[in-house]
Structures are given as C-alpha cells and as structure tokens.
Amino acid sequence: MINEWGRAAISRSLEPAGKWLVRQGIHPDAMTVFGTAGATGFAIWLIPTGHLFAASMIVWGFAMLDVLDGAMARARGVTSPFGGVLDSLCDRIVDGAVFSGIAWWAAVHDHWVLVALALVCLVSGQLISYIKARAEAAGLRADGGMVERAERLILGLAGCGLTGLGLSWALDVALWLLAVGSLVTVGQRIHAVWVSAREQYGAATGVTRGPASPGTPALPAAQPEEPSSPAGSSAPRDAEG
C-alpha cells in the first residue's frame, strides 16, 4: 500500500544525497550491505535485551539506507541484476532479524501470544515476498496487497518504540494488525497470480478458438505477455520483494 506512493516520494527527496555519495566513490551495493548489517545487528542486540525504543529508532535509520541505495544506483545510471538480487536478499535478512528479535523478547517475558504473532508475521512476510518473486519468474504478476515491507517495518518498529515508551499494549496491537494483514496479503497475492495466469492463458489460446476453414492453416497462438522481471534483467532496488 505505502509502496505505491510513499517510496517514490522518499526516493525523489533522496536523489541529491544519492548523487553526492556516488561522487564520493561509494557503491550502492556497499550501502546496501552497510544498512543491512547495521539494522540486523542492532535488531538482534537491542530488541531481545529490552531496549525497544532505541531499537526502533536505530533500526529504522539503518533501514532507510535501503531507499538511499536506490537513489545511488539511479545516480550512477547503471542497472545491476546483482544489485537488485542483493537488495531483495538484504530486505529479507532485516525483516527476519526484526521479527525474530521481537519473538525473542516476547519469549523472555513469557508473552507467548506475542511470540506466536511475531512468528506468523515473520513467516507470512517471507511468503509475501516469495510469491511475488516466484510469480515474476514465471512471467506472472503478483503486485500489491494490504501489507508490504514498508507496513511491516513501520508497524513492527512503531509497536516496539511505543512499548519502550511505556505503552505496554502497543506491540500487541501492532502484531495483531500485522499478522492478520499479512495473511490477507498472502491470499491477495495468490489471487493476483491466479488472475494473471488466467489472463496469460487466454491471451495464448484465444486466437485459435473457432473452427478453421478447410485448407486454411490455424493461426498461431498469441505469445504470452513478457514477464515483468525476466531472468537476467535488473530488478529495481525500490521494488517490494
């Protein structure tokens, strides 16, 4: 949801910073790895040890570098298939660190419902990204949905931060919203793949419908639409994985 408008606006605001960093000789992939290492390390250290507000601020700061590396890639004017794959991989690592840290903290404090909710958010978040990646590899579409990566990070870290400030119910509310929304999004993406597959099948077979005249060769079937991210192309760094 937020990806449809928020990320584009943020990316445009970071264009000057991206150009400046490129002029300093910093590679976008280095920024990706640096942001991932910082977000992952602080999430695993600060969240389980109960420093929830500090974790929310620091991890969010490092996670924002995920947007900055996209601005840097555009400033260089060079697309990199490896960079797109690396960016998606690093997104999954940060998501895993955040929700594993929340589950760890909840287990230490015997909040077993929160443990279960955090694990649901973790697994469903990986599924949401996998469905899209697998669909695009098959030439299908699986975009959108109620909860994408931006919503996962915003709600998860906001719940941590507010709980760290004394609102003990904030993380419960955030995880319930995320768990339900993520499961709905899994269903939405599966449905999107089903619709895309039907459209592709119709495009491939519709031309040959109806009897052909004697001696008239059947028209060739229409080719299926080009996949949105064909193998070997560069996946955009700013796309939700």
Describe, in plain words, how this protein is organized in 3D.
The chain has helices at residues 6-13, 15-23, 28-46, 52-63, 65-76, 81-108, 112-137, 149-164, 170-205. Helix content is 69%, strand content 0%. It is an all-alpha fold. The protein is built from nine helices and no strands. The radius of gyration is 21 Å and the shape is flat. It starts with 5 loop residues before the first helix and ends in a 36-residue tail after the last helix. Helix 1 (6-13) packs across helix 5 and helix 3 runs antiparallel to helix 4 (52-63).
Which terms summarize this structure?
241 residues, 69% helix, flat, 9 helices
Lay out the secondary structure.
Blueprint: H1 6-13, H2 15-23, H3 28-46, H4 52-63, H5 65-76, H6 81-108, H7 112-137, H8 149-164, H9 170-205
